[in-house]
Amino acid sequence: MVRRLVAGVDTSTQSCKVRVTDAETGDLVRFGQAKHPNGTSINPACWWNAFQEAAQHAGGLDDVAALAVGGQQHGMVVLDKHGNVIRDAMLWNDVNSAPQAAALIEKMGAAPARNGEPEDTTTRGKQRWVKTVGSSPVASYTLTKVAWVAENEPENAKKIAAICLPHDWLSWRIAGYGPVAEDEDAHLKALFTDRSDASGTIYYDAASNEYHRDLIAMVLEAAEGAETAEAHADAIMLPTVLGPHQAASVKADPAIAGKDVEGGCILAPGGGDNAMASLGLGMSVGDVFVSLGTSGVAAAISEKPTYDLAGAVSGFADCTGHYLPLACTINGSRIIDAGRAALGVDYDELAKLAFASKPGADGITLVPYFNGERTPNRPDATATLSGLTLANTTRENLARAFVEGLLCSQRDCLEIIRSLGAQIKRILLIGGGAKSEAIRTLAPSIFGMDVTRPVTDEYVAIGAARQAAWVLSGKTEPPAWQLNIDGMETGEPTEAVYRAYTKARG
């Protein structure tokens, strides 16, 4: 039997990774990566160059039968009618559009309250956004960035012929498309995406599988007036939203991938990074991952869409036809770094100190909002240590308080997701923070249930490869690839610790 190969591409903020994988088993065959430049506004050409370099490092893609791209979410790529990138892509972490996000909430809430809606305009606006597209505007989302361009670069806004996301654009380039001459067709209709990434734009509703072009028209008004904006929004090419295992109508350019494969290389829908990671982890309904990196992310697989009228949870879609309610904290594993720096210890020493203390750190509680916070939404907050006395102010208790503070902040995310109806039967702990012995040991006690630790791996790229294999197979379910587990953490629940935390944070 001839082995069939697929490729999973992870075009993240930091780098591009290409994973060539056995389609049947999921085993790694080859791997390559290349860096992206730093910044929050990036020329997409850098992504294309990095992909080519990573593919070369992975031994080329001539023998690959299917390919999928997982990408950083929300980033805005705008193209003119000739397929040229109009301006640098504004990435998810570009906060310039924060004023536009706030203004969109106010605009949505401007109409008088009806049917028991809140009297407060801001609260009413958030609720209406959530009911319309599943999430309330923050600076991360694509539409807020289009609004920024319309207000600050109106001439660029008027040129927009297509709006897409990083993974959409890279998939389109892999299909062989790009800028064309004045009299040529740029084939913008060939752009495609998936539910997960489209759901992070806030002009797409995953529940109805519909784009809301009226929302795009609303933000373009600043550049060209209401009537022209409406006609313009109707004309803008938005990527076709493919089903979870639906092949794109175009294949990879043979010069890029699939040259040696009969019939060429199929292109799968791709997806947003968090949804791809969940696919790479083999998550199903009832599973949630807690990812501890620079930020903290908790995301669950849910059968039904979730609507958090407070706006704390993003109502994203996943890559399987389900939904991915997601809560994010600004402060993640850097909380531990702050604790290490304050105590002058390394990770192992911090763990030893924390273990020498007792649950609750003898009454000390850290609320770790060092850089403000997103969940809960307190952008101007700072961290607080409470409960200090002369007797309990020890290195051991302080170390414990830092670890418990981080885990309690993630417990907040889990509880919000659970309150919206999502089941939580299994917790998967991933990210750099999961390497900390203190975090992984105390996590089950704070979370109130056992914690599974998959081995450290490139789960976005694995998820993309798994999706590619799924599309290639023609089956209704994705291939059952084995998830390698590094360990299972258990511990006695310490609910009193979380109760003290909730009291301290208010």
TrEMBL record:
The record places domain Carbohydrate kinase FGGY N-terminal at 6-280
Its BP terms in the Gene Ontology are:
D-xylose metabolic process; xylulose catabolic process
Residues recorded as binding substrate, renumbered to this chain, are 73-74
- Membrane-crossing residue ranges in chain numbering: none
InterPro entries hit by this protein: ATPase_NBD (IPR043129), Carb_kinase_FGGY (IPR000577), Carb_kinase_FGGY_CS (IPR018483), FGGY_C (IPR018485), FGGY_Carb_Kinase (IPR050406), FGGY_N (IPR018484), Xylulokinase (IPR006000)
- Gene label: xylB_3
Name the job this protein performs: Catalyzes the phosphorylation of D-xylulose to D-xylulose 5-phosphate.
Q: Which family does it belong to?
A: Belongs to the FGGY kinase family.
Q: Which organism is it from?
A: Bifidobacterium longum subsp. infantis
Q: Does the keyword Cytoplasm apply?
A: no
The name this protein goes by in its record: Xylulose kinase
